[in-house]
Design a protein that fits this description.
heterodimer; A: 80 residues; mainly beta; 5-stranded mixed beta sheet; two-stranded antiparallel sheet; 1 helix; B: 455 residues; alpha/beta; FAD/NAD(P)-binding domain; 5-stranded parallel beta sheet; 34% helix; globular; binds flavin-adenine dinucleotide; binds FE2/S2 (inorganic) cluster
Amino acid sequence: MITFTFNGVELFAISGQSVSAALLTNNERITRYTRINNSPRGLFCGIGVCFDCLLIIDGKPNQRGCITMVQSGMTVEIQK
Amino acid sequence: MIINHQILVLGGGPAGLNAAKYAANAGADVGLIDSGVRLGGQYWRHTGDISVDHAMHHNFDQGSLLIDAVLTNPQIKVYLECQIWSVSIVNDSIVLRSLFQIFQTQKLIIATGAYDRSIPFPGWDIPGVITAGAAQALLKGSGVIAGKNIVVAGTGPFLLPVAAGISRHGGNIVGVLEAAYKTSWVKGITTLIRSPFKIVEGFGYIKTLRKNKVELRFGHAVTAAHAGADGLLESVTVANIDRNFNVKSTYSLKCDVAAISWGFTPDTSIAGALDVRQRVNHDGSVIIEVDDDQRAIQSNALIEIYAAGESTGIGGSELALAEGAIAGLAAAHDPGISNQLRKLRRRAQKFAHTLSKVYPVASGWQSWLTSETLICRCEEVTYQTVREAAEELGAIDARGAKLMTRCGMGMCQGRICGRSISDLFDGNQVDRIQFASRPIITPITLGELAQEGLL
Ligand SMILES: Cc1cc2nc3c(=O)[nH]c(=O)nc-3n(C[C@H](O)[C@H](O)[C@H](O)COP(=O)(O)OP(=O)(O)OC[C@H]3O[C@@H](n4cnc5c(N)ncnc54)[C@H](O)[C@@H]3O)c2cc1C
Ligand code: FES
């Protein structure tokens, strides 16, 4: 077990999991809000193709949660 | 620093792994590139924890043997977590760029695989609506079940292992909805079971679904998704559809995840950038055209480009393995490509062709759309906007609609919506191929480029 934060809240994850998988395990399904309609989005294709699971990871925006491995101490935030 | 290899293989799934292995065994110096953290591609996606992987996979032994053979071969250098975002031909060499490396070669083997085919419907952008492949990737790659109450829907033999995998690992499948009718589905499954080529792994899944009392419905599809007050998926509209996908009657089903797939779309992104010839396959998808040696068609005589696996047509892992072996040997100029190998490939291709007829996606899906339904998820372009482009602005094809509405111009570069937009326009072949061609393989932001000192 490792810990990371999502919007400032500490969550548990298993190392080797993707960020998307770790968020789902913690019942977090919304990764970003869209630019035009401000509607919520989450994981869709799961393999790095659709760019719907974008998050701010360790301060960097536009990171795909589905192909980024969760790390101990990682900070993950919803992208608006 | 520029990394040179005699042969570069892009993609570490079944096709790319076998290509690298065969080319290296024929004496070539090979570089194998994949964006993932582990080799194996979609089929042998794994967590890296052996006990978990064996429980998740029907035949992980074959995969781990091949992966080990590649990792321990001194002739092969493996580059992981290495997403290629741009490719070009510079001074008669093929140049591939990731954020951190530049690769150069005279011989490239494209083995970039495929992704789930999605078709638009009202609510398909609600968090909780995912592809069947996403559910599979979560399970195989992270050991996670996508939700509490899961609907699996769409069409094709892939729905079964996805549903069975979730069910076997304790997930609750509230229904499997197959759009094909039972008579043709039974024909398809019988073909599958009798064939030596497994398009999807293992057949235990039918037993698993029966044992766990999972309901399998034919001639049914998810035609709308609905969110609760929290913005998350709460239920789907399930329709009883006719053979043309027109709705006969509907009911509602509660679920927090709907995993939906309409077959696969080959990933040929790299072909457009390299000016490699593509064509429209029998199932309507755009593929890289190859000859009997898996060699792709392009005009520069000083370079060689080959392609293998799903990027040359959907056919499953065994076809990908056979094509990879032939591409690897051909690229290494090994004269030893056996007739047996070619025969195996031909039979597997024929089988894939037969099977694809069992699971057609009929045009009636367009009747599920409402004016507000998003067609392009990235740029949030609605059906109404696309229709206006056609009816009022005179767009006659997908490329015209793209210029007028920005559909297909977002981050995914039309990978998700491209096929559907060209279907909406009853796309001619040239339009379809050009819509699928993009100069950049994977979009990265200018900020990322600047950060890595590339700007
Ligand atoms: C999400 C998903 C899940 C699937 N799960 C199964 C399954 O469980 N069972 C089954 O029988 N079939 C499954 N399939 C079908 C699958 O396509 C075939 O079984 C098989 O994996 C195809 O082999 P391949 O070598 O052609 O491609 P793939 O296995 O898809 O391998 C292609 C590889 O290329 C890499 N790649 C692509 N573009 C780039 C780039 N620009 N830079 C770097 N690397 C790149 C990808 O990361 C990937 O690892 C799945 C397909 C998808 C899309
Ligand atoms: S879910 Fe599609 S890119 Fe991550």
